[in-house]
């Protein structure tokens, strides 16, 4: 499942969505807002999304991952709105019988989300400027 959130992401609550007694492996990725990008000091980010399309594309990626990898459950949540330095911007979690599939699926979901889901990042800089940023895979 793929969701967007205006509220801060809570890793333990998100992890609970992919816990499965059949699974021997669990992998999670947390993407945090850092204080720099391309030699500029970042003060905050604003994420915007086309909500309906983002959820539709995100859920298609999740279904694709379920079909491509031998995994039991997967979940991805991306923040939207204003984020401060250190806030979690994206969380991806995958459970599977074995770790190899969980690692591969987690990386796939993250990369596909960054490449395909209509979410836009506006960075705000220490010097008072701001700018839209392309996804870096």
Fourth-level CATH superfamily = Molybdopterin biosynthesis MoaE subunit
Q: Which sequence of SSEs, written as H and E, runs from N to C?
A: EHEEEHEEEHEE
Question: Structural class, from secondary structure content?
Answer: alpha+beta
Provide the CATH architecture: Alpha-Beta Complex
Q: Enter the CATH topology name.
A: Aldehyde Oxidoreductase, domain 3
Instruction: Please report the number of helical segments.
Output: 3
Query: Termini separation (Å)?
Result: 21 Å
Biggest sheet character = 5 strands, antiparallel
Low-pLDDT windows of residues:
none
Number of domains: 1
Number of strands: 9
Helical percentage = 25-40%
Q: Could you tell me the mean pLDDT?
A: 96
Family: Belongs to the MoaE family.
Enzyme class: transferase
Protein name: Molybdopterin synthase catalytic subunit
Pathway: Cofactor biosynthesis; molybdopterin biosynthesis
Summary, kept brief:
The protein is of the alpha+beta class and about 140 residues long. The protein is about 30% helix and about 40% strand. Strand 3 (about 35) and strand 4 (about 40-50) form a beta hairpin.
Layout: helices, strands, pairs:
Blueprint: E1 2-5, H1 11-15, E2 25-32, E3 36-37, E4 40-49, H2 51-68, E5 73-79, E6 81-84, E7 88-96, H3 99-116, E8 119-125, E9 130-133
Parallel strand pairs: 1-5
Antiparallel strand pairs: 2-7, 3-4, 4-6, 4-8, 5-7, 8-9
Helix pairs in contact: 2-3
Describe this structure as you would to a colleague:
- Keywords: Molybdenum cofactor biosynthesis.
- By secondary structure, the chain is α+β, with helices and mostly antiparallel strands.
- The chain has one domain (2-32, 47-118): Aldehyde Oxidoreductase, domain 3, CATH 3.90.1170.40.
- Helices cover 30% and strands 40% of the residues.
- It has 3 helices and 9 strands, in the order βαβββαβββαββ.
- The chain has helices at 11-15, 51-68, 99-116, and strands at 2-5, 25-32, 36-37, 40-49, 73-79, 81-84, 88-96, 119-125, 130-133.
- Strands 3, 4, 6, 8 and 9 form a 5-stranded antiparallel beta sheet that branches. Strands 1-5-7-2 form a 4-stranded mixed beta sheet.
- α2 (51-68) packs antiparallel against α3.
- It is elongated, with a radius of gyration of 15 Å.
- The mean pLDDT is 96.
């Amino acid at each position: 499942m793929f969701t967007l959130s205006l509220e801060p992401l809570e890793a333990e609550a998100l992890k609970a969505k992919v816990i499965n007694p059949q699974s021997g492996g669990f992998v999670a990725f947390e993407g945090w807002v850092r204080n720099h990008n391309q030699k500029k000091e970042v003060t905050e980010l604003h994420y915007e999304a086309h909500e309906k399309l983002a959820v539709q594309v995100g859920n298609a990626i999740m279904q694709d991952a379920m079909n491509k990898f031998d995994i039991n459950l997967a979940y991805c949540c991306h923040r939207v709105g204003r984020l401060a330095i250190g806030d979690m911007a994206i969380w991806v979690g995958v459970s599977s019988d074995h770790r190899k599939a969980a690692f591969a699926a987690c990386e796939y979901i993250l990369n596909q989300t960054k490449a395909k889901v209509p979410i836009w990042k506006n960075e705000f800089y220490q010097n008072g400027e701001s700018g839209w940023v392309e996804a870096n895979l």
